[in-house]
Amino acid sequence: MNCTHIKDLLPLYTEDDLPSQQADTVRAHLFSCPQCRESASEYEASQEWLRASGGSGGTQLEDRFFDDLRASVWRGIEESNKPRAFFNGWKWAIAFALLLITAGLVLHSRSMQPVRDIPDVVQLLPPPATGPVAAVTEPHPPKARRRPRQIRPLRMLPLLPAPVQAERTEIAHDGADSMLRIEIQTADPNIKIIWLIPGPQRNGPSESDTE
Amino acid sequence: MPGEAAGIGLMPQKLKLGDAEPPMARLIARAQAGEAEAFDQLMIAHQHRVVSIAWRILGSREEARDAAQEAFLRVYKHLHKFDLDRDFSGWLYRIVVNVCHDLARKRGRQNWSEEVSDLSNLPSGENLESAAMLAQEQAMVLRALSSLSRKERAALVLRDFEGIATEEVARILGSSPTTVRSQISSARTKIKNFRDRLLKVKI
Question: Nearest Cβ partner of B40 from A60, A65, A70?
Answer without folding.
Answer: A70
